[in-house]
Design brief:
Layout: H1 12-23, H2 28-38, H3 42-48, E1 66-74, E2 82-90, E3 96-102, H4 110-121, E4 125-129, H5 142-150, H6 154-169, E5 174-183, H7 185-197, E6 203-207, E7 224-231, H8 233-236, H9 239-248, E8 253-262, H10 275-293
Parallel strand pairs: 3-4, 3-5, 5-6, 6-7, 7-8
Antiparallel strand pairs: 1-2, 2-4
Helix pairs in contact: 1-2, 2-3
Length: 294
């Protein structure tokens, strides 16, 4: 795997601008142009943050511990009534605990598929739905994927994720216990699905996702493991009221904020990746799912 340690020290303002680019309507050209005006070397810093997915693969498609396939399934009330997802199962026979992996705001890119393979290699059946599949699927690059996802009806897109969770929970390969994890937009979906599905969810592990409305937290019936980046003011501002609601409703939860990290620190395809923090967060997530789903 490529070493993604930044070859240069990236200015925090460039990280902040990248976050704005990822979560807003800013085009890549505008991101590069603004970065070049912020500081000497700003353009180079900005260019280094663009993901390099192929070189960041951790679990091979041909790993003997797993079997991967794309599956289609119905999704009533979603964007088109049909969904497609990346289903990865352990080659070891027998039912397995199930984990839904929810992508960021750009569809099912190779990084999220790799996360699904990581879970399967640890004995879970993982489904990574592609919210863009009803409109052609992930287009092969994040810029177009972000634009496509932004144009979807958000309620129907969320419904597609909910239906994906229920499809996975009832899958013949599943032991009937459902975990959910997700990143950025997917972290927010993890939170909201955990509220909406109640006792259907047995464990949830969102990474730097939007908090649900406080009044929805009463419906959470599963333990929650939350991961936050230190330098992520937009997400972190939502945490105090969310934590208060978790405490008020006596929800079992653990939360961790990882020092020196940016939003997206788990994504090993860009220099936002912080290996020590990502590995620790992943170890905690695996242990959490094994405790609650196996």
């Amino acid at each position: 795997m490529k070493d993604l340690t930044p070859p240069i020290q990236i200015d925090q303002r460039i990280f902040d601008l990248y976050d704005e680019y990822c979560h807003g309507s800013m085009a890549r050209r505008e991101f590069f142009a603004k970065a070049s005006t912020l500081t000497a070397g700003g353009l180079l810093m900005a260019q280094s943050l663009i993901p390099e997915y192929v070189q960041a693969q951790t679990i091979s498609f041909t790993d003997p511990r797993i079997k991967a396939q794309y599956v289609n399934y119905p999704s009533e009330g979603g964007t088109s009534g049909q969904m497609r997802g990346y289903l990865v199962q352990p080659t070891k026979p027998g039912p397995a605990p199930a984990v839904l992996v929810v992508h960021e705001n750009r569809g099912l890119n190779p990084h999220i598929e790799d996360v699904a393979r990581r879970l399967a290699s640890e004995g879970f059946i993982a489904l990574a739905p592609d919210g863009l599949s009803p409109v052609g699927g992930y287009p092969g690059n994040d810029d177009d994927g972000k634009d496509m996802q932004a144009k979807l009806n958000p309620v129907k897109l969320w419904t597609d994720m909910k239906n994906s969770a229920l499809y996975l929970k009832s899958h013949a390969l599943s032991n009937g216990k459902l975990g959910i994890t997700g990143f950025c937009w997917g972290g927010g979906v993890t939170n909201s699905l955990t509220c909406a599905l109640g006792t259907a969810v047995q464990a949830a592990a969102p990474f730097y996702g939007d908090a649900p409305a406080a009044e929805q937290v009463v419906n959470i019936k599963a333990p929650v493991l939350l991961h936050f980046a230190e330098n992520d003011p937009r997400i972190n501002a939502m945490w105090p009221p969310y934590e208060a609601a978790l405490k008020a409703n006596k929800v079992s939860y653990q939360s961790y904020t990882y020092a020196g990290t940016q939003h997206g620190f788990n994504n090993n395809s860009t220099p936002r990746y912080v290996e020590t923090a990502a590995k620790l967060a992943w170890e905690r997530t695996l242990a959490f799912f094994k405790t609650n789903l196996v």
